[in-house]
Amino acid sequence: GVSCTATMVAVLARKLELTRAEKHVHNFMMDTQLTKRLKNAAANVLRETWLIYKYTKLAKHVNVSRVLAHQRKFLQAIHSLRKVKLDQRKLTDNVNAVSDVARLQSSVYDIVSQMLSNQTVLESKFYDLDARLLALQAIDRAI
């Protein structure tokens, strides 16, 4: 029961995992959507700022309920603008993490291949040293 469920979850997680190209497309689409939301949120902040100014400074009689409503909308617009900026930062961090993993994988591969070549060089030097030592032992026995 438990092992069957664990296997099924592992298989489903593997199937739902995105490929590298799909991740890039997803990140691009999310960036486009967040940019659109950022523009709308900034426009809402400007609009509500203008309406507050209009109903407080340009009006002959200040309608307090209308000003309070626009102040509320202004604060909501600021909150949504901050949330969109936070979401953009999270997406940027996520994109950087994906590219960092690829870069890290590449550098690890380079280091491992360099270590392998160094190991083969050291092995050949040890075999050469061993052969010389055996030759010296043979000469010592002959004397």
Automatic annotation (TrEMBL):
Keyword Ion transport among UniProt keywords: yes
Name of the protein this chain belongs to: Calmodulin-binding domain-containing protein
An annotated Gene Ontology molecular function: calmodulin binding
Keyword presence, ATP-binding: no
Primary localisation category: membrane
Superkingdom of origin: Eukaryota
InterPro entries registered for this protein in UniProt: CaM-bd_dom, CaM-bd_dom_sf, K_chnl_Ca-activ_SK
